[in-house]
Amino acid sequence: MSAPAPSPLAIVDAEPLPRQDEVLTDAALAFVAELHRNFTARRDELLTRRQDRRAEIARTSTLDFRPETAEIRAGNWKVAPAPAALNDRRVEITGPTDRKMTINALNSGAKVWLADFEDASAPTWENVVLGQLNLIDAYERRIDFTDPRSGKSYALKDADQLATVVMRPRGWHLEERHLQFDGRPVPGALVDFGLYFFHNAQRLIDLGKGPYFYLPKTESYLEARLWNDIFVFAQDYVGIPQGTVRATVLIETITAAYEMEEILFELKDHAAGLNAGRWDYLFSIVKNFRDGGAKFVLPDRNAVTMTAPFMRAYTELLVRTCHKRGAHAIGGMAAFIPSRRDAAVNKVAFEKVKADKDREAGDGFDGSWVAHPDLVPIAMASFDAVLGDKPNQKDRLREDVSVAPGDLIAIDSLDAKPTYDGLVSAVQVGTRYIEAWLRGLGAVAIFNLMEDAATAEISRSQIWQWINAGVVFENGEKATADLARKVAAEELAAIRAEIGEEAFAAGKWQQAHDLLLKVSLDADYADFLTLPAYDQLVG
Fold it and tell me: Could you tell me the domains of the chain?
């Protein structure tokens, strides 16, 4: 067999990384180039359609199930049965693909690890390339890690004790500036998917598993159709059977919530399930209904629990839809990070995590997410109590559930209001998260919670919405740009005092403060905070 031709992709403005040649092979880059040639134009069209849909929502302030797909919703079809490695998903752990996390997540006792190149990873070139290398090394069982600070060593357990990997590529809106085709950046989603699939599809089949994916930020069934076409092309390209790829779609946009059945239908032979994520979903509601007036104003993010009526409608519809179509329904994130010093804090938090996971298991979910290995046994116990020896509860059809279109956007059914403390919290968390992201960290422990990019999105969106809606807080202060600037300045000063001048100067604190205010105060609302943030990350 002749050697592959040099790839038409150019690596741009990137410092060489150790062992990058094992990831960025000519053959792998040639595959990514083919994905780009065949699918980027459609991706561009779909991003334009998002703008059109958003303009329509601005005009109508409503959403409905799509009339043109009524036949699909009425049809008698099911997705392909789950492969053995994805049949029991009762606990899934999430996290970025750095070396230590890769080992800890695979060893965590969870059934699945969401290996994240998306919201829990800042897309530095180092994270993009070395994250791929870490996964290859894990499958080849040549991965270990010694913590330079503690001296503690980490190594993989036996193969039968390791979590199944479900990899999450970046969303459709992000480019990969360091990889270009004819001077144009390749979409980050195609880079992440392409490199992982090309290197690992056959490796995973040989391990009795397969190339499994989480698809983020999907806004319509047409975006699911694009992914399905990519899967068909990719499987043919490397010569593996159709249906080997499996995808779980995050229903984390309000528009996708009205197209769950259609999304599963488009992916049919490649569909594994749907997931209910909270912060991005709320961010999407604010983004889409930001012109909708007082009835769409969300209260403090922590006041919007999964028991809020409109969130309940969303999760119940998701479980019903998945089980009707033979797919897994995966619940939301337990983001608590246990304290090594405060047992009382842990006790209260663990009880909340247990109540949340008990509710999900009781509602019919087949599994759920945690952010920390210490939460795996808590979530496992909740699902074990309901599932017993069964791998899932897809036989619970939830025909008792009936959700009307208006139920999903009945924001005013929640008896809570924005508070001044909520504004302060949004500024605090937003500033601290963005600062870490600009340093290349996407999963950040803030106030005992593991936060990712969705946290910063809902934080800045709430500041924007409250100011534009003229919200008056319980202390009589009105939400204004000046008030947000005042709170942000106070937070910056508090951080400087807390960490000291030297650490403050070494960080990206002023940049984070400025960027948070820009995306929170600009009249022209930015679609994604990560777009201007990426300009700074790679600029």
Answer: 20-406 (3.20.20.360), 417-538 (1.20.1220.12)
